[in-house]
């Protein structure tokens, strides 16, 4: 009985890790596409997890909402922040903080 519980815990950890890797890949692609859309430079080619929440999706199932932070530059001198909000594997919003206001892409 104890070995079954340990296997279930290990399987849950492995599933969560694979789920997180896939979500980060989606966030990286969304970040790069958003920067390309506004003609900005995607800095560091990376995104870092800012927040993780357990939410109820539109279908009523439980899922994770992740917000990833990335950096971009419009003039190659300044470093601005952007955020990608992902519900499950679906991109909810992409926020780009700019000097003259925030841009929200879907």
UniProtKB/TrEMBL annotation:
InterPro entries: DUF3301. Pfam families: DUF3301. This is Uncharacterized protein DUF3301. It comes from the Bacteria. It comes from Cocleimonas flava.
